[in-house]
Amino acid sequence: MEYFYPELIPNVSTCKSPQQMFGAVAKTYYTDKIEKKKEDVVVVSIMPCTAKKFECNREEMNASGVKDVDYVLTTRELGKMIKQAGIDFVNLPDEEMDAPLGISTGAADIFANTGGVMEAALRTVYEIVTGRELPFNGLHITPIEGLEGVKEASLKIEDTKEEWKFLEGVTVNVAVAHGLGNAKKIIEEIKSGKKQYHFIEIMTCPGGCIGGGGQPRMTTDEIRKARIQAIYKEDEGRKYRKSHENPALKVLYEEFLGKPLGERSHHLLHTKYFNKKDENA
Ligand code: SF4
Q: What is the DSSP string of 190-246?
């Protein structure tokens, strides 16, 4: 977007990636909790994504006052390190994640595949606006799941809560694309006026992060499908499947962030983008 379609930057969500949101929270809320100085804490992300190495070095990514994420290892690099160290990973006992921030949801699991961010967001938005669960197949928005390059879904909002009455009867159109060729296709259709959407999810890598550039090689569609199946199985087995139900997040907002879009959450969880078209020349 910054390099090829800067005129569309005002349409891009200002939400940071999960990596950078976590880094900013880790070096503020978490360091307060464990009574350490942020300068003494090192945040290392394990990512499916080589682009995350670039992202953590962006100048804006120091909302905590220091670099929010210090190092990024890809899953492929971590796998190599585990093998080099001779760790029998498969037979390691399972452990709970550390608290605070140690509870995860199904919505987070499905973030990793094409359509997953959209589905996770709609699970929460629909319920906040109507007070009911998404009227789809067990929370799954099937039209936007799967490996088709561009996917679409429409959903009519009815029987909203009082404060959301202005959305009553609105049909929300969403689209999902993965791979930059498909992203280009969808953007050109929007720019020409052929298509109109309220909410679009674009993932760079074919299949989404499950097929990311930092994942174990080689990635075929068969492997992508197996990984997608695995994350949906994780999602279905979770106690919490929607982000707004996550007890750790509720505590984070109560104790520290205040409210979504409040001053502190805006500062720590959101970012901005810049026109870099000239760097492209
Ligand atoms: S889709 Fe690819 S580039 Fe985008 S965050 Fe996932 S792994 Fe990184």
A: HHTTS---SEEEEESSTTSGGG-TTSSSP--HHHHHHHHHHHHHHHHH-S--SGGG-
Per DSSP, 40 falls in state: G
- What ligand 1 atom has the least distance to the C-alpha of 112? 6
Q: What CATH number does residue 226 fall under?
A: 3.40.950.10
Which residues make beta-bridge pairs with 44?
A: 71
Range of the domain at 111: 104-245
Tell me the residue length of the chain.
281
SS3 at position 272: coil
pLDDT tens readout for residues 269-279: 999 999 999 88
* Residue 236 located in a structural domain: yes
Query: Would residue 141 count as lying in a domain?
Result: yes
Phi, psi angle pair for 176, to nearest 5°: -135, 130
- Binning pLDDT at 50, 70 and 90, where does residue 141 land? confident
With a Cβ cut-off of 6 Å, ligand 1 is lined by 48-49, 51, 203-205, 208-209, 212
pLDDT of residue 140: 81
> Residue 140: phi, psi to the nearest 5?
-85, 125
pLDDT band at 139 (very low <50, low <70, confident <90, very high): confident
Cα distances from 253 to residues 33, 139, 202, 223, 267, in angstroms, run 14, 25, 28, 37, 14
Give the residue whose CA is nearest to atom 6 of ligand 1. Answer: 209
Is residue 269 included in any domain, yes or no? no
Which of 178, 209, 210, 227 best tests ligand 1's pocket when mutated (most atoms within 8 Å of CB)? Answer: 209
User: Each residue of 30-49: pLDDT tens digit?
Assistant: 999 999 999 999 999 999 99
Name the amino acid, one letter, at 6: P
In a domain, 140, yes or no: yes
